[in-house]
Amino acid sequence: MNARWVGQDVPRVDGLEKVTGAARYTADVKLPRMLHAKVVRSPHPHARVRAVDLGKAARAPGVRAVASGQDFPFHVGIYLKDQTVFATDRVRFVGDAVAAVAAETPEAAEEAAALVEVEYEPLPALLDVRQGILPGAVLVHPQLGSYQKVPWITPEAGTNICNHLKVRKGDYEAALRGAAHVSENTFVVPQVQHVPMEVHVSAARVDLAGKLEVLTSAQSPFTVRHLLCACFNLSHGDVRVSVPQVGGGFGGKAGINLEPIATALALKIPGRWVRLLIDRAEEFYAAVVRQGLVATLVTGVDRQGKVVAQKMHYLWDCGAYGGYGVNVVRAAGYTCGGAYEFPNVCGDSIGVYTNRPVGSAYRGFGMQEIHWALEQQMDMVAHELGQDPVEFRLRNCLGPGKRTVTGQVLDEHAGRVDKCIHKVAEAFRRPLEEKPGLLRGRGLACAVKAPAMPNDAASSVLLKFCEDGVLEVLVSGIDYGQGLRTVAAQFAAEALGLPLHQIRVRNLPDTDLSPYDWQTVASRQTWATGNAVLKAAEKCKAQFFEMASQVLHAPVERLALEGGQVVDRGGQGSVPLTRMVMGYQFPDGHTIGGPVAAAAHHVPEGLLFLDPDTSQSAKPVAKWTFGAQGLEISVDPGTGQIQVDRVVACYDVGKVVNPGLIRGQTFGGVVQGLGTGLMEELKVDALTGRVRNASLVDYKIPTSEDLPGELEAHFVETPQADGPLGARGIGEHTMIPTPAALANALFDACGVRILDMPLTAEKVLRALQAKRAKE
Amino acid sequence: MTIAIQVTVNGQLEALEVEPHESLLGMLRERLDLTGAKEGCNEGECGACVVLLDGRAVNSCLVLAVEANGRAVTTIEGLGHAGALHPLQQAFLEHSAVQCGFCSPGMIMTALGLLNENPTPSEADIRQALSGNLCRCTGYRQIIDAVQAAAAALGAAGQAGRRP
Ligand code: FES
Ligand code: FES
After folding, report:
1. pTM of structure
2. In a mutational test of the pocket of ligand 1, which residue from B27, B58, B59, B135 has the highest number of ligand atoms less than 8 Å from its CB?
3. Do B44 and B31 touch, CB atoms closer than 8 A?
4. Looking at this predicted complex, what is its ipTM?
């Protein structure tokens, strides 16, 4: 296909509504006679719930509904149903929902929530993941063995381990014994928060006929519906979930979040809308967070600088519930070696419950965390061997013909990390300018990620023409800014040869009306929905050709689509599409065909489960996206402050579908990566289990002042065999290598290594002082 | 107890009865259904709620509705619309400066406040002016480019400093 629209810098199709303020997010939607909800949350990290008395709250002025675990002891969770709508017998983190109230005003709800009386019996709390796997550790989920789960996760009853993936390839022990050099290091990543600008909000109403409607800021309306039905034992036909504009998700709005609590309250007061809008503080401690990680790596290298043995022990702090996080643990397992070919591997990815905030999906899905370890380790080993870190990476990286940790052999369509490394290294050739009083350095890190999703994760679309020839494209992925609507329009325009203004993407998904889509996660939408759009467009084309063949008396094989017409390449005739969009009428009045429309879906092909003991699988995931980033920094030796001067990012995306959008994904990811690398950390008090920095004052994210001086985005285009026009996912990958590249640049600048994220000025200064003291 | 106030909002004089503790943000969103300004934190830390008060950018979550009495408020809804976009809105579109869009109204209004005071800002001026407006999606690069482009466009059109 000679691309006319795909690859072009077309403006965002939903930009106009966003720059005019017309775009409506969940909290902007006026719901008639809406009630306001407030959740009663546990002040204890771990306690038995002796009694919950809702009496006073229920009688407070303006209160219309109250609910607790007594009414709704139902389990919920996407992969492991380890959570209930409200805590029943025990609370497991500071912020665990115990009850909720719905009242006429937010103030009345707030006051009534304070009147709910909960009798707690505090229990010893588990606040350090490393303690969680020791014998005799406090058990966060004594009932673990009884929870429902998907077959491909392996919780260990009687322990705090909610999932454990083992990767065994080759003979690690023997290879390690034969290694010329061995290096072992432990790296730490704290829990961090997504900090979407729009906090979580969900509204629900049960009408008098029993139909539940949910309006929610979510990444996955269909999965929300499915899980609500399972939780409350409802029929899918009786539940309607719709998602207005979403103000950022980054994984935090994947799966199911506030919807069950809003639903529980709505069930208590049929006919009334109940809206649960949490505040920014709750967003920090009660909404989901990114899991913490303690990673221990052992690398054995031969004399030529080839890694011969690699051990990876990933200990994940899943927090109080692992419903979603168990799959992060799994993804980190089958990707445990990152962008490298390790012939002999011993990998363990272990998810552990603690009494800390709930871990879940976060842009990168575990990959930034493991790359923090892997990419520093590669640098450290290279330096120990006196080798150039770039050469060392090139010698060991994955590529066509190489075998991943699960034994998958990559083919020529898999993407090329070596090309990305070269691109960054090339950009680094420019000499690093001296800056008076500052220490300059540069560092590089690679990245890889596959979509982590069930093997049958589907996206479907519906294409239908309007009377005036405009094509409506219904897609059900969430476009929270990554640009799904725009790329869906580009693919449709491309496939049908229509101008872009004749495409309207309809995308505020509503489970009653929209085609099915599993979830908007895993950087899968451009790829999955893009494929589905192309397939549906082919079906529309076939309908046009069938009509045109009769009109032009020409066989279908002779027809072509050109400039809004079906043309007979063997004869003279042509028919404009506009004459056929509602069916074609002959001069005598008889009509053939009908409104042109088609549905199509995309499901990944040929995915195979992992071997339960070794995780070997010839095709565990749909695709890999590789990349590399290089950072140039200046360190102030007096303060420890790191200034990022330049970032060079390069990814093999298969095909750049929209240059403006992909630059946006790259810049946004890099800056979010700098946030976790330099400043972000959820500070959980070691005694009380409370989050000490639950506000934007105390938890800083990057501002316009933190933006690097120079940002460059480069792309390699090795076409993905099953990608739409060769494209593969990129949304998450852009933040994966950034912190590790930063740490490597720090070492280059001043010879200090910091193994625990983030690289705050305070830590850098301390490391510099320690180094000076030694010298 | 409510208080009667008169505020000019996007050029229209509005007579309203507001609560003493009610924020300007709440008044705009709940009473006037002007939902362009967003609530991101309610404590002056995110800039999602920025509107112009007598031409100056303010966090409307920190301003009491009664403080707007007798003054002029401009929200994103008062700036431009399809077919007649303000150069800032146009530039945000052209530079892919919008992703989820939640921060965009506040960003645009803050940028307008800046251009009202300084029609030819440097990149450093823009970074500083926008530093109270958080954006989790874009990484700010394209937003800064858009503000620069809009400043140039307004300068060329000789309408820099236009005070709505
Ligand atoms: S809502 Fe006003 S600054 Fe955040
Ligand atoms: S575009 Fe999403 S917060 Fe700025």
Report:
1. 0.97
2. B59
3. no
4. 0.97
